[in-house]
Structures are given as structure tokens and as C-alpha cells.
Design goal:
Layout lengths: L1 H34 L6 H5 L5 H13 L7 H11 L23
Helix pairs in contact: 1-4, 3-4
Bound molecules: heme C (HEC).
The site of heme C (HEC) has 17 residues, from α2 and α3.
């Protein structure tokens, strides 16, 4: 019985951690929508594949250029996850003719 309780406790704790984590990611997403859309599209942001360190530098560079970031931490959690250098590089968007679209970035 004791071990069952331990397992339950472990499961509950994991659930809480996952919930907190997804809340943090959600805040990162909201921060991105708020702070990173004034000067370029989010495609420019989300098509990057950077390490956590490079994202930190990138965020600071954008803040230096005037990005209205309210809270840097959620972005630092979100962007390296969303656009990690461990992920494959995204395919360019194709037009109906199968030709890659010209980017306006
Ligand atoms: C004040 C305007 C401005 C805001 C706000 C802004 N950026 Fe940028 N960003 C730029 C400019 C200018 C460039 C470089 C020119 C280009 O390629 O369009 C750029 C380019 C980038 C690039 C491409 C790599 C590079 O460094 O050139 C990334 C990634 C990026 N921005 C991320 C972000 C993120 C993340 C945010 C939100 C925290 C953000 N930007 C908000 C102006 C801005």
C-alpha cells in the first residue's frame, strides 16, 4: 500500500510540474505575440534554429533594438523549445505552383 501511495504522489507531482511547464510555455507564446511582431513576421523568429545561448543573445539584441519585452524569462523558456537547434530546419512555404514563396523579411 505504501508503494502505491508513493507512486500516486509521484504521479501527482509530475502532473503539477507539467502544468507549470505548459503555463510557462503559454506565457512565452503570449510574450512573443506581444513583443516580436512590430517589425517583422513571426516566421522570421520561428524558422530560426538556435541554441538556448544564442536565443538569449537574440532576445537581448531585439530588446536593444526596441522590442517591448515585459518579461524575458518566459521567452527564454519558449523560444529555445519552439525553435531549438535540435529540430530540423522548416521547409520553405510553397506557392500553389510548388515554387518557394519569396520572403518579405
Ligand atoms: C524594434 C523592431 C524589432 C522588434 C520589436 C523585434 N525585432 Fe527581431 N529583428 C528586427 C530587425 C530590424 C531584424 C533584422 C532585419 C531583418 O532581417 O528583417 C530582426 C531580425 C530578427 C531575427 C533574425 C536574426 C537576426 O538577428 O537578424 C530574429 C530571430 C529576431 N529578429 C527575433 C526577434 C524576437 C524573438 C523578438 C521579440 C522579443 C523580436 N525579434 C522583436 C527588429 C525587431
Amino acid at each position: 500500500m505504501k508503494s502505491l501511495r508513493l507512486v500516486l504522489a509521484a504521479l501527482l507531482t509530475t502532473g503539477t510540474v507539467v502544468a507549470a511547464d505548459s503555463q510557462m510555455l503559454q506565457r512565452g507564446h503570449e510574450e512573443e505575440q506581444h513583443s516580436c511582431v512590430q517589425c517583422h513576421s513571426l516566421r522570421l523568429v520561428e524558422s530560426q534554429r538556435l541554441s538556448r545561448n544564442s536565443w538569449a543573445k537574440e532576445i537581448d539584441k531585439m530588446i536593444g533594438w526596441g522590442a517591448p519585452v515585459r518579461d524575458r524569462q518566459p521567452l527564454l523558456n519558449y523560444l529555445p523549445r519552439q525553435s531549438s537547434d535540435a529540430k530540423p530546419v522548416p521547409q520553405p512555404e510553397l506557392t500553389g505552383s510548388g515554387v518557394p514563396q519569396k520572403s518579405n523579411h
